[in-house]
Structure formats: C-alpha cells, structure tokens
C-alpha cells in the first residue's frame, strides 16, 4: 500500500490497538504488507468572533478559571459596563483613586446597565462590591497585574500569525482575595490617611493596600534563587513594588551562571555588553538603576550542600521568605527542603514555552514542593539510542554523547593518565572501561608523538565517518538482517524499529562535509594545531588522499537488542592483554599532559564547531534510519538543553507569583492562596487552592505509632541546649513517653542502645560526638544540628518522630 505515501493528510475516523481507519478511498491501492510510519498533522481550525458591540451586550459563555469564584466572570462583565458608562459620562476619565462618590456612581451605572440589558439581566443581582472596588482602584497601577495582563495581551498579538488559539472572546480575572479586608477596602475614608498618597512611586499600591502594608513590603528580607528569565522579571517586580527599599530590607539573589548570547532574547535585564558577566550581579546593578532605593545582595554561589557555610543557620533564619527562579528539579527540591527545615514560605514557579505553573508553599498551611514529586524523566534505553533510534531526539542525544566521549572525556583521560597513570586506572571499576580509556588515550598520544597535522585530523574524521555511518550499520544488518523474525515469528524490524541503511561518503553532500569539517577542527583544537581550516575546498583536497579502511566483519562485535540484556563482553583475559600492551606502548611515548586541551561544551559560540558537529552527527544518524532531519537551531536547543522560554509566559507567571506575595505579607488564610496552571497557546488558566500538608496518623503502614500523632512535614522536635546523649534520651521520655534508642546524623551513627560499647557515650555531649564522628566543626553561625532519632514505646513498638533539631546555641 505504498500509495499512502503520496496522498494528502487523511482524517483518522477510528482506531484500535492494532488498526487505524482513515477517511480515504483506498479501493485502487495495492495490498498492505507491513510496517509504515504515520505522522500526525495538525489541520487548520477556523475561528470566528462576534463584534465588540455584540459581545458587550451578549458576552457569550465566559471562561471560569477559578471554580471558587463561580459566577464571578458575569459579575465582572457587569462591573466593567458600569465603569465604561462612568467614563462615557465624564469625557473618558476614570474614577478618582478611592473616591467613594465616584465609586457609588459606577455601582449605579452597573445596576442600570444590567437591568436595561437587551435580552434581560445578565446577573440576577449585581454584587455591588465588585463595581465599587473596580471604581476605587481603576487608576491604581499594580506591577503584578501589569505583568499578568501584559504577558497575556502580548501573546494574543502573536496569535495573529495563526500559530496559537486566540481567546473566545472575554476572560475576566480578579484577585480580590489579595485584599486583607474587602469590606474595609470599600470605605477607604474610614481608615484616615492609611490609603492616602505619599507622593511616591508606590501611591497606586498604597491606594489599594495601604501605607502600613507598603512599609511591610519595604522591610522584607527575601531570598531569590536564580537570576535568569524568571529572576529578571521577579527583580523588576520587586523594584516596582518597593520590596526591600527600607534600611532593614534586603533581597539576596544568587546565580552562579554567566550571561550567554542565547539569554538576551528573554532575560530582559541583560544587553549585549553584559555578555560573560555574572547574571546576579548584572541583574542587581540594572535593577538598582530602575529603583535606587532597593537593597540587593548579589551572590554567585550555587545553593547546594557545598555552600552551606554561607547559606547557614543565621542566613536562613534571617529570611522572611524565598522565591525560586530555577530551571531544574534537583535545585528546586534542595531549596524546598531548606524552606521546610527553617519553616520559610516558598514561591515556586516554572515555565516551558507557553506553559507555566505557580505553587505557594507556606509553613504548616500547605504541602511542600517536594511532597508531590514529579514523575522521573524517562530515559531512552541504551539499545534504542545506539542501535534502534526512531526519533530525532535519539540521534541528537547520541551525537551529544559522542561529542563528550571523543572531545571532552578522552583528552581529559589523556591528561590524567599522563600525570599519574596508576591512580587514574585505579579510579575505574571495570576492566573493560580501563581498556576503552587506554585505547582512546593511545590514539591521542600516538598522534601527538607523531607530530600530528591538520591533514591527519581530516583523515581521522573521514575514518570516523566510515566507522559510524557505514561500517557500524553494516554490522547491525549482518547480525539483524532485514528478514529476521523474533521469538514469536513476527518481523524483527517492525514497530518503532526502523531498518537502517549504510551511508556512502560523498564529498559533494553538504551534510557529509559538515561532519568532516567540524570533527577535524574539533580534533585539531585538542592538539592546539594552528593550521586548522574550515574551508571545504581545502579539506576536500586532503580527503582525496585519505585511505579509508575497507569493511571487515568483526565476529566479536555483538548488537544489544534489549535493555538489560548486554551483549556478551570480551573475555577478561583479552582485556588484560590489550591493557598491558597499550600501557607498554604509552610508556614508550614521551608526551607531557599539557599537550592536550579538552573541549568545554559551549552552545552559544558558533565558531567552536560544537553544535556544527552535533548537528551533522545527529542528522547523519537520522539519515541512516530514515528519520526526518531537522535544522541546526532545533538541534542546538535540544543538545544545549535550552528550555524554551517566552517573554510573554515569563511576565505573566511572575505576575501571578507576586500576587501571592501580597497575600503572604498580609498573612492571608489558605483559601486566599492560589496555585495555578497556565497555557497561553490554548489558552488555559486554572487555579486551585493549595493542598494542606499530609498528616501522619497512627497506625502507620507498618503498624508504627507517630509521635506526636498527626504530625506533618513541617513539624520538628526542637531540643534546646548543648546536651549529652542521656539528656536527649531523657527529653524524649519526659516529653513524649518514648525511649530514644538510636541517634544519628547523616550517615554517622552517634549512639545505638543495642551496642554495648556505646554505653560510654551516654554522658558525652552530642556536639562532641558529631565532631568526632563526622569531623564537623561549628563556627558561630551554626546554631543547631539536625538529628535522626529512632524511638520505641514501653512495649518496644517502633515510633516515628519528626526530624529532630538540637539547638545548642
């Protein structure tokens, strides 16, 4: 049924596990035999809208983004009609800030519009607080709301390209829950000067939240982790809101990364003259130009166990809260664990293209970020990557691995081996790993000893091309021929397995030459050769004289077919012989370790051939397996692990996060906070109340008791004093009626009741035992020690207790 290859996209009308029905006349087609790859095609959708004049009267079905506010969109539509009517009666002017007379006029206009609406009232009864608050604050400018609306509207402008689905047609959003007292906010005059302007840049915010609230923002001590796309937007928001602008306020921002060219289109604080500068320090300097009053402590430290000498007890205890602006789960989980440990609120968010999410973490009120872990990322099986790729992502990943092995690891191994061969060999566990390392090192050392030239590098690249894209494929086809069947008698080359075909080198093919040029230049750079060139004609002249080895089947080479079923390795005796011979050969070559320069992968330098090599290698492998080749930019994005970030999504997301900061500052109840999930492409906006922390209630899954019953991840056992082991045991007995039978710190066992030798430790201070067992020393910044304590009750039943902290200072 090869005729399917030449028909336009056909609609799928039905499908089962093993059949697909197409809306297609196949009466004249030949019979279907086997195989085939189907590609989903997104067909255009026609979207039509009514005019604004029609929609004002009949807004249609309004999207509900928060089911805690059911019916709110219709009420807001009526409120806005009241506002527009006020403007129409006042030459387009908005109501004055906190003018209660103007606000009542807007309420009256809204009620009148609803009553007179063609087709009957839109709502049964107008919720007067909505038009009233809308009028009171219509002139107020709040940075978070500006970020939200700016991001959404900008994305709608992009939709004129037809790439994404536009709004249909209204979407209303409010955050009244950010107000401490909705009733009081409707009567600002009753609060005296609390909502009166100060003649400052924050007067709009003061008009909504009040002077005392503004002072709270100014005195915040906040920690922001990351100064990339999200971090830049957060800092701008902090500056516009007046966060940390009082003498006692401060924003600590840390990021160990430096500014690269790919950052400039979405990390808006950075310009081309900032390239290679510190992200955190540059962002801080630019923000302080925006708002000279803001206090920022810019750091270049990665928040991790290795920097706990700086990010110590005193640092964490001195914070009011933390905002994450990170792009990886491991770092997020670490910061989250610290927030749980020190009971600090955390504002968490992330973006991926047009999608984003917001999560609020509040001590004792909500679950932590780590309480609902994301599923682990699926790893592509090794056999799929090396032998049976079927996606371009597979070929890109393998190309990236080949780059790391050939141009980073092997020259690094050469340096390490030439410095201390015995120690470097001992660092490797497996004998086959040692053999592979030595063979790679010998290739480089022998070439260097032979006064390697650029022509030698070109010849090497040509032989690599033949090995990877011709000989390797021919070996696979010899072991797994096209007519091979599996144990069940089904064709082996079916499903996702694409039968490959070897590539014959052709210097006239641009892709072939791209591989040779990049590979040769990368190898030349390892040797520091000055005669390297990227000119195709010069390289073609060298290629004409290269002797390429003929294909010879090596019967010892086996092909891994299934994950976990490794092909039978070479015998250990063979490895030993090769290792011994290679070491002798290396001993005869006198080369200093400095003779080699390993590459450091850098995706943003187009002159270093890194992405050129990976792009060529990935597309050649794709050609082997008849996988659609892709452009260099997509390969750069995947190989460089560039997380797609749009300025529109970033601006909107940080706006939603900063709204939650308003609520944190006013100590709002849990029902006021909102977690959010968004997709500007659809568009989708979904809000939900954060989940409370899980309670550990007895009996546990293994029948254990929880002490105290119902404790959560936020609860801690806090023992005050520089106590002995016996005093700690007494504390647990007196406070909770349990016996502390074992105490440990990390992987170090400090005390175990079942070990007779530990009886002598009962009268020793826990801090001394920690020093002796772990080698830790505590400067004045260390106030407490985290311990794990195992307990039993009077009947020797196991009891689980929260993490224990010995507060010894």
Provide an overview of this structure:
The protein has 809 residues and is of the alpha/beta class. Among the domains are: 1-43, no CATH class; 144-175 and 209-384 and 644-694, Rossmann fold; 705-807, Ubiquitin-activating enzyme E1, UFD domain (Structural Genomics Hypothetical 15.5 Kd Protein In mrcA-pckA Intergenic Region, Chain A, Roll). Helix content is 39%, strand content 10%. The protein has 25 helices and 17 strands. The strands form three sheets. An eight-stranded mixed sheet has the order 5-4-3-6-7-8-9-10, sandwiched between helices. A hairpin with a 2-residue loop joins strand 13 and strand 14 (748-752). Helix 5 runs antiparallel to helix 23 (647-665), helix 9 (229-241) packs across helix 23 and helix 18 crosses helix 21. The chain starts with 11 loop residues before the first strand and ends with a strand. 34% of the residues are buried. Belongs to the ubiquitin-activating E1 family. Keywords: ATP-binding, Ligase, Nucleotide-binding, Ubl conjugation pathway. It catalyses: ATP + ubiquitin + [E1 ubiquitin-activating enzyme]-L-cysteine = AMP + diphosphate + S-ubiquitinyl-[E1 ubiquitin-activating enzyme]-L-cysteine. It comes from Thecamonas trahens ATCC 50062.
């Amino acid at each position: 049924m090869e005729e399917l290859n030449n028909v336009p996209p056909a609609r799928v009308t039905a499908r089962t596990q093993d059949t697909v029905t197409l809306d297609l006349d196949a009466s004249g087609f030949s019979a279907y035999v086997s195989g085939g790859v189907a590609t989903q095609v997104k067909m255009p959708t026609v979207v039509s809208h009514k005019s604004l004049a029609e929609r004002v009267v009949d807004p249609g079905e309004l999207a509900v983004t928060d089911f805690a506010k059911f019916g709110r969109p219709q009420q807001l539509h009526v409120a806005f009609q009241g506002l527009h009517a006020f403007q129409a009666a006042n030459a387009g002017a908005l109501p004055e800030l906190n003018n209660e007379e103007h606000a009542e006029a807007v309420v009256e206009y809204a009620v009148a519009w609803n009553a007179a609406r063609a087709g009957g009232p839109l709502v049964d009864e107008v919720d007067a607080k909505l038009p009233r608050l809308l009028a009171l604050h219509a002139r107020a400018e709040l940075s978070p709301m500006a970020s939200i609306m700016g991001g959404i509207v900008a994305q709608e402008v992009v939709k004129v390209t037809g790439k994404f689905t536009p709004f249909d047609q209204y979407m209303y959003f409010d955050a009244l829950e950010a107000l401490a007292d909705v009733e009081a906010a409707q009567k600002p005059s009753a609060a005296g000067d609390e909502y009166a302007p100060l003649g400052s840049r924050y007067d709009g915010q003061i008009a909504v939240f009040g002077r005392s609230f503004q002072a709270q923002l100014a005195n915040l001590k906040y920690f922001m982790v990351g100064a990339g796309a999200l971090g830049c937007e957060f800092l701008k928001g902090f500056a516009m809101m007046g966060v940390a602008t009082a003498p006692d306020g401060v924003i600590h921002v840390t990021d160990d990364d430096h500014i690269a060219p790919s950052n400039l289109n979405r990390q808006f604080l950075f310009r081309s003259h900032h390239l290679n500068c510190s992200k955190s320090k540059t962002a801080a300097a630019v923000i302080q130009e925006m708002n000279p009053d803001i206090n920022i402590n810019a750091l270049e430290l990665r928040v991790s166990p290795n920097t706990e000498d700086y990010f110590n007890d005193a640092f964490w205890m001195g914070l009011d809260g933390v905002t994450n602006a990170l792009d990886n789960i491991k770092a997020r989980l670490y910061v989250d664990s610290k927030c749980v440990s020190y009971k600090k609120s955390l504002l968490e968010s992330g973006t991926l293209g047009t999608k984003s999410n917001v999560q609020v973490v509040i001590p004792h009120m909500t679950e932590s970020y780590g309480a609902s872990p994301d599923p682990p990322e699926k790893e592509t099986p090794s056999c799929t990557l090396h032998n049976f790729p079927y996606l371009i992502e597979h070929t890109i990943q393998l190309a990236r691995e080949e780059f790391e092995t050939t141009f980073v690891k092997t020259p690094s191994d050469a340096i390490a081996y030439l410095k201390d061969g015995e120690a470097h060999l001992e660092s490797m566990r497996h004998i086959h790993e040692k053999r592979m390392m030595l063979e790679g090192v010998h290739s480089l050392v022998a070439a260097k000893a032979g006064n390697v030239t650029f022509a030698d590098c070109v010849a090497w690249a040509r032989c690599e091309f033949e090995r990877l894209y011709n000989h390797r494929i021919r070996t696979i086809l010899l072991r797994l021929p096209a007519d091979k069947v599996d144990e069940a008698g089904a064709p082996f080359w079916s499903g996702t397995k694409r039968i490959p075909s070897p590539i014959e080198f052709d210097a006239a093919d641009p892709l072939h030459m791209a591989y040779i040029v990049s590979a040769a230049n990368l190898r030349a750079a390892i040797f520091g050769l000055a005669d390297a060139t990227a000119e195709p004609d010069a390289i073609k002249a060298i290629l004409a004289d290269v002797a390429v080895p003929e294909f010879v089947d090596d019967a010892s080479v086996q092909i891994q077919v299934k994950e976990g079923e490794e092909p039978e390795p070479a015998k250990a005796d063979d490895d030993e012989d090769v290792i011994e011979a290679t070491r002798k050969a290396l001993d005869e070559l006198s080369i200093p370790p400095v003779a080699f320069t390993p590459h450091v992968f850098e995706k943003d330098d187009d002159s270093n051939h890194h992405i050129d090599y990976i792009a060529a290698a990935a597309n050649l492998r794709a050609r082997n397996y008849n996988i659609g080749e892709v452009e260099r930019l997509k390969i750069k994005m995947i190989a460089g692990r560039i997380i797609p970030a749009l300025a529109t999504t970033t601006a909107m997301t940080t706006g939603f996060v900063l709204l939650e900061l308003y609520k944190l500052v006013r100590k709002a109840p849990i029902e006021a906070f909102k977690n959010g999930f968004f997709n500007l492409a659809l568009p989708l906006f979904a809000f939900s109340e954060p989940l409370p922390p899980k309670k550990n209630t007895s009996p546990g899954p293994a029948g254990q008791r929880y002490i105290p019953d119902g404790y959560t991840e936020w609860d801690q056992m806090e023992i005050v004093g520089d106590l002995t082991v016996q005093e700690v045991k007494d504390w647990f007995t007196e406070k909770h009626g349990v016996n502390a039978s074992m105490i440990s710190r990390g992987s170090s066992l400090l005390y175990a009741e079942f070990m007779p030798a530990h009886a002598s430790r009962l009268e020793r201070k826990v801090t001394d035992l920690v020093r002796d067992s772990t080698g830790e020393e505590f400067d004045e910044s260390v106030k407490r020690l985290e311990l794990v304590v195992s307990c039993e009750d009077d009947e020797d039943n196991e009891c689980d207790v929260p993490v224990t902290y010995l507060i010894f200072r």
